[in-house]
Amino acid sequence: MTSPIDFGIPDLTGRTVLITGANGGLGRVTARVLAGRGAHVILAVRNRAKGEAAAKTMPGSTEVRDLDLADLSSVHDFAADFTDPFDLLINNAGIMIPPLYRTADGFESQFGTNHLGHFALTNLLLPQVRERIVTVASIAHRFGTIEFDDLQWTGRSYRPMAAYGQSKLANLLFTAELQRRLEESSSPVTAVAAHPGYAATNLFGSDDEHRLSDRINRTFTRVFAQREQDGARPILCAAVADLPGGSYIGPTGPFETRGKPGFASRSTKSTDTEVARRLWAVSEELTGVTFPEL
Question: CA-to-CA distance for 196 and 217, rounded, in angstroms?
Answer without folding.
Answer: 17
